[in-house]
Amino acid sequence: MATMADRSIVPGAPYPALFGAVLPELPGSRHAGIRRLREASFDRFMALGLPGPKAEAWKYTPVGRLARAEFVLAPPIGLARAHVEPYLVRGATHLVFVNGHFSADLSDAESADERITVASLAGALERADPAVVAALPESDPTRAFSALNEAFATDGCLIRLTEGAALAQPIQLLFVSVGQDRPVLINPRNVVIVGDEARLELLESHVVLGGNRSLTNLVNQVMVGKGAELRHDRLQTGAAEGTIIGQTHYDIAADARLTQTLATLGGALVRNEIRAVMQGSGIEAAFNGMYFVRERQHVDNNILVDHAAPGSVSDQFYKGILDGQSRAVFAGKIVVRRDAQKTNAYQANNNLLLSPDAEIDTKPELEIFADDVKCSHGATAGELDERELFYLRSRGLDPATARSVLTFAFAGAVLERFTNPAVAQQAKTALLRGLPGGAALEELA
Question: Is residue 206 a contact partner of residue 239, using CB atoms and an 8 Å limit?
């Protein structure tokens, strides 16, 4: 049997040296309580170690090289608005972060509504905001990357809506990573609190510009109150470099509505973890995802939906497109606890392999302790339909264009689930530009 030591890799000496050097300058460290929290989190990170090849949840996604990396914290960088304009959604309130640092020049003013807080997390830490201080240690205590984030968190956002509050426009969080001469460590931390009966449309965009040897270690903590509604669109695009490892944790109260749609269209190594705890009855939650990997890119989607109370519905719908020598992982799990009778939970993962060298590892899973439930799961992997290709070829399309048309149509079932049309358009355009001859088909989007 593998021991804990077999399942983890001890981080190298550069990590303690970096932490000791930057701790006095990290936001909020002048407050003794926050400083102690950071120190305890770093000690936990060193004790846990990074996941090794025998860690079940990470066996298809090796991260051992990160234990030896000599990172520096990403410095603030000024960008002209022209660099980020293509990624901004018109009509939204924008918070822009460049290499993990809030850019006031590229962002909009904070909300004037006293029921709504939209602010930089660094500022909240400097003020020792009670909501932020309370939320920081609430992430997974057994997850090394969460502990690393708690220790080094530099910035991110605090969004808080009190009971019944609603914004007329969406909020967009735009995270831009810019290449540096040395490997950089970026630790965004976002705290989102949607009060009872409140409404929020949240757009989360991650963009990698240029060659980038960065590690973006993201943690989202999201609390959705009773009868509240959250629509959360997430889009990851940009250069085929950089590493993004992130966890989004949802705590969902009774009668709430949650829709999350995620598209991963860039990055050398990307791992998206979703943890959703359905704390009450009458919840409806949908988790949609689409990923497109090529060359030697690697994407890992790891999802856990935990039904802790009776009478709620969840739906996981993920599609993947793999080309070149890429690899994708999908591990989706539904847990139905003993008291969660009358649960309806569904899960599907469909994959399209465009290359014989591409590989998909998919593991849908059900863990059910109740007996009055409706649950199903399934996974598929296959190639393009030769009959459909023949039909398009007979209409005058060349082979590359015909394949791109069918591939785009395969992804469309997920991309159409984005709440915000502008985000859907950005995702469709990014997908087409990555397909052979796809740029000529952008009118399809």
Answer: no
Residue 116 lies in a domain: yes
Domain-located, residue 222: yes
For 20-115, strand residue ranges (E) read 50-51, 72-73, 93-98, 101-102
Please state, in angstroms and rounded to a whole number, the distance separating the CA atoms of residues 373 and 361: 27
Which positions ≥6 away from 70 have C-beta within 8 Å? 14, 182, 183
User: What are the tens digits of pLDDT across the range 168-180?
Assistant: 899 999 999 887 7
Give pLDDT, residue 240: 64
Question: What is the number of domains present in the chain?
Answer: 2
Are residues 169 and 49 located together in one domain of the fold? yes
The dihedral sign for the CA sequence 418, 422, 423, 427: positive
Q: In angstroms, rounded to a whole number, what is the distance separating the alpha carbons of residues 190 and 295?
A: 31
**Do residues 132 and 107 lie in contact, with contact meaning Cβ atoms separated by under 8 Å?**
no
pTM value? 0.94
Among residues 229, 255, 279, the one where a domain terminates is 279
The range of the structural domain enclosing residue 421 comes to 387-445
CA angle, residues 59, 62, 64, in degrees to nearest 5: 125
- With tokens 């804990």, the residue in question is 4
Domain boundary among 216, 249, 279: 279
- Quote the CA–CA distance of 254 and 372 in Å, as a whole number: 19
